[in-house]
Amino acid sequence: MQILKTTDQDFSTKFQAFVNERREATVDVSGTVRDIIADVRVRKDAAVKEYTSRFDNFNPQSFRLSETFIAEQAAQCPANVKSALEVAAERIATFHEKQLPQNIAYTDAVGVKLGLKWVALPTVGIYVPGGRASYPSSLLMNALPAKIAGVERIVMTVPMPRGEINPVVLAAAEVAGITEIYCIGGAQAVAALAYGTESIAPVDKIVGPGNAYVAEAKRQVFGRVGIDSIAGPSEILVVADSKNNPDWIAWDLLSQAEHDPSAQSILITDSESFAQKVIAAVGEVLTNLPTKEVASTSWEKHGAVIIVSNLEESIPLLNQLAPEHVELCVDAPQLLANQIKCAGSMFLGRHTPEAIGDYVGGPNHVLPTARSARFASGLSVYDFVKRITYLQCDEQALHSIGEAAITLAESEGLPAHAGSVAIRLKEN
Amino acid sequence: MQILKTTDQDFSTKFQAFVNERREATVDVSGTVRDIIADVRVRKDAAVKEYTSRFDNFNPQSFRLSETFIAEQAAQCPANVKSALEVAAERIATFHEKQLPQNIAYTDAVGVKLGLKWVALPTVGIYVPGGRASYPSSLLMNALPAKIAGVERIVMTVPMPRGEINPVVLAAAEVAGITEIYCIGGAQAVAALAYGTESIAPVDKIVGPGNAYVAEAKRQVFGRVGIDSIAGPSEILVVADSKNNPDWIAWDLLSQAEHDPSAQSILITDSESFAQKVIAAVGEVLTNLPTKEVASTSWEKHGAVIIVSNLEESIPLLNQLAPEHVELCVDAPQLLANQIKCAGSMFLGRHTPEAIGDYVGGPNHVLPTARSARFASGLSVYDFVKRITYLQCDEQALHSIGEAAITLAESEGLPAHAGSVAIRLKEN
User: Which keywords annotate this record (chains A, B) (predicted)?
Assistant: First the structure.
């Protein structure tokens, strides 16, 4: 964990280095993934079967999970967890329903009819990581926006190493209304979704988190299908004044740190003594934290405390860091929030720990990482719809705007473009 | 050019092969591009200078074009072309202004404040291809949505082989209000925009068309910056009944074919005799077309005529082909248009040749190619804004939804997530 002060002489150099730091070592798995995809394209189900046996030590009769199996497993989800999933789903659905965009349609002064219609993607595949570490909350965050967008066919793949599955994942699928589920994972699942096999019809877009092989497979099939962004390790930036309870802030910092040794937790505060209290509290909480190993590695390697002269100073720093999550633990958070231009999602005030947003807040928890909030946004209904624009001229409207088109087409050396307009102006 | 009939026994096999046909040979330039990007990251301006000298045979004093130079060059644009650019810009701006999205903000029943705000990307770089073949209309289509989105800094790069530039490009930049222009191109321009050099500040997103090196460079810098989609060769699908003038339809087909030998023009009609008339007309128009060489290669290699029993039959075929451009040359185009789910942009009725949309229609002409209209959309204001979501709980609101979050966090094995909520519920 490093401490930076804006009053230090070399602050700006140190801060630049901190901004540019890459936290994730990228392993090159592109060759392996390329081979798997090529094989699945040719041998389809047979190839998927082979990789599933080899990598997951699992030999299912059929990739598709039966209704009975899904229901039996989902029934093993504890009742309080099922209820919590339902609370989460309802709140996520309500927030995302407000994102449904409006079509555009108008006739302009010269009689041209113009418009833009939003259409749901026909089919979407959701990748869900396997094993006990799978996150049912992510399934809801990926599936519900697609559902609300109106996607007709939503497919899910989830690997079942040694035939095991987390019942909570299937309970979450039930809550989200997903019934077409295949027990495959890795690059072979991504390839099957993109190109289709005898038993799995292809999809138009693939979303959802995965390991390095899944991420690389998504990169390689992009173009054939759409993909969501490739997520990096999680980040939180907490802006806090000295009136906060240092323990609360310590828990918030560790809630990111426990995700991954590459995760990053940053505190910006205007009080050095408060910072020291938080640092001490982090140490104390860590002592008994079951995820201590991961959390302390993340905090030691990537954690940072930035001391500013006043909290206004945090805004330009924050916009450069473009963090995935921002907590504004101050009395009037909206004043700072209004100035924030680069962040995934914001958590305002002293009673909004980021973890609320991970589960039951309503906004999506799939958010841009690795400074990509400069140009990217969290997952939303917009990721599952597309726009089709249109134009309609009648004879008179074409006469009004046709000459300008002809002039530009000729200037660009495209005579058939010009001709297709000119012939309609001439003969009528 | 091939002719397919839905009544043929092997139609569906042939049609599938046609859908899956890949029209573009991909040259692997990834190694060269990787070297150029790595070099520009280290040696910055010096590297860009060297590549510009080597590839463009041009040694400018400074990469940034002076106000005087831009004004002098732009003044050489013919007056009628300048006026046409202004007509185009005004119509494009009007259509794109209607895309400006609405923020979301509400307080729900348990007192949680939620919202989503749209924010313009801070800086955008537009790549404009060089030489005489550059398309000033594309500059407008890329720059105006960024401008309307509220992007504060819009930068443009355009290579100047042997010091030459198309005055119309600089006139278009003037119309679009772009003043920060650098005379560089290729992978070195993309690298400079993504990473910055001594004389060029980096941007957050890079858009605009380019050759194979530019496309590959955009792929490689993706993640560091945002990029638009990588465009493939252009496509048109014309649905036409026998009441059309075959000459008009022939011109429309050739207006795509003249773009590129890999471009594709498809006619779907319910009349075989009309199809034959169009095919004959294409041959006739080609005889005197200055772009004959390109257009006839495209038509012969990739052109297709599909004869359907009735025009309703064209809809599922069209949705599978997901063409960049669709013309519906029938009396009641809206009836067909309502059923279209996969297309970039639609041109309705007999008096709306696609070329109108290339220049002065209003909707964007940067559109999804290579069947990607299944999941992707044309360029728009949405490509230059991002969403930041937010959440605010007070004490009471946190008490309402906190337990569900704790339950899910514990079920996912994330105790610090649970703890960050629990400590706030406990102490208050």
Answer: Amino-acid biosynthesis, Histidine biosynthesis, Metal-binding, NAD, Oxidoreductase, Zinc
Going by C-alpha positions, the residue among A227, A306, A190, A211 that lies closest to residue A260 is A211
Residues B203 and B240 reside in one and the same domain: no
- The predicted pLDDT at position A176 comes to 98
Residue bearing the bigger pLDDT, B219 or B154: B154
Q: Count of A–B CB contacts within 8 Å?
A: 374
Within this chain, do residues A80 and A146 fall inside the same structural domain, yes or no? Answer: yes
- The answer to whether A412 is a known ligand-binding residue is yes
Co-location of B79 and B196 in the same domain: yes
Is B252 exposed, middle or buried, given 0-12, 13-18 or 19+ CB atoms closer than 10 A? buried
pLDDT in tens, B175-196: 999 999 999 999 999 999 999 9
Q: Which amino acid is at B259?
A: H
Task: Tell me which residue in B108, B351, B427 faces A393 most closely, judged by beta carbons.
Answer: B351
For the segment B304-309, the average pLDDT, to the nearest whole number, is: 98
**Residue A374 belongs to what H/E stretch?**
none
Q: Catalytic residue at B324?
A: yes
> Residue B25: its pLDDT value, please?
67
Chain B contact for A324, CB < 8 A?
Answer: no
**From A113, A247, A355, residue closest to B421, measured CB to CB:** A355
- List, as ranges, residues 240-279 from B with C-beta within 8 Å of A: 245, 247-248, 251-252, 254-255, 257-259
Domain total of chain A? 3
CA-nearest residue to A94 within chain B is B108
- Least confident among B70-84, B163-177, B224-238, B303-317: B224-238
B20-69 pLDDT tens trace: 887 776 778 999 999 999 999 999 999 999 999 999 999 999 999 999 99
**Is A285's CB within 8 Å of B416's CB?**
yes
Structure tokens at B342: 């996969």
A271 with A190, same domain: the answer is no
Asked if the structure places residue B368 within a domain, the reply is no
Positions in chain A short of pLDDT 50: 428
Over chain B, what is the mean pLDDT?
96
- A408: nearest CB among B101, B252, B359: B359
The answer to the question of residue B383 being in a domain is no
For residue B379, pLDDT beyond 90: yes
**How far does B381 lie from chain A, in Å, by closest CA?**
12
Q: d(Cα B177, Cα B140) in Å, to the nearest integer?
A: 10
Domain region containing B412: 393-426
Which residues of A belong to the active site? 324-325
Q: Do A414 and B255 touch (CB under 8 A)?
A: yes
Region of poorest pLDDT, from A26-35, A289-298, B350-359, B367-376: A26-35
Q: Do A407 and B258 touch (CB under 8 A)?
A: no
The beta strands (E) that lie in B52-128 are given as 104-107, 113-120, 123-127
Half-sphere exposure of B97 (CA within 13 A, CB side): 7
Q: Say how far residue A114 (Cα) sits from the centre of its chain.
A: 33
Q: Amino acid identity of B105?
A: A
A302 is in an annotated binding site: no
Q: Mark which residues 77-116 of B lie under 8 Å from A by CB.
A: 78, 80-81, 83-85, 87-88, 91, 94-95, 98-99, 101, 104, 106, 108, 112-114, 116
B287 and B223 in a common domain: no
Cβ B52 vs Cβ B157: under 8 Å: no
Whether B285 maps to a domain, the answer reads yes
CATH of the domain at A215: 3.40.50.1980
Q: What is the ipTM of this complex?
A: 0.96
Last residue of a domain, one of A227, A261, A292: A227
Taking the mean position of all CA atoms in its chain, how far away is CA B176? 18
Shortest distance between the Cα of A59 and any Cα of chain B, in A, equals 27
Say yes or no to pLDDT of B197 above 90: yes
Which pLDDT belongs to residue A132?
A: 58
Please indicate whether residue B333 or residue B135 has the higher confidence score (pLDDT).
Answer: B333
Contact B88 A382 (CB under 8 A): no
Residue A415, in any domain of the structure: yes
Which of residues A171, A192, A227 is at a domain's end?
Answer: A227
Residues A252 and A174 in one domain: no
How far is residue A91's CA from residue A195's CA, in Å, rounded to a whole number?
34
Task: Please check whether residues B64 and B185 belong to one and the same domain.
Answer: yes
Beta strand A325-329 with A345-348 is parallel
Based on the domain organization, do B174 and B57 belong to the same domain?
yes
A69 to chain B, minimum CA–CA distance in Å? 21
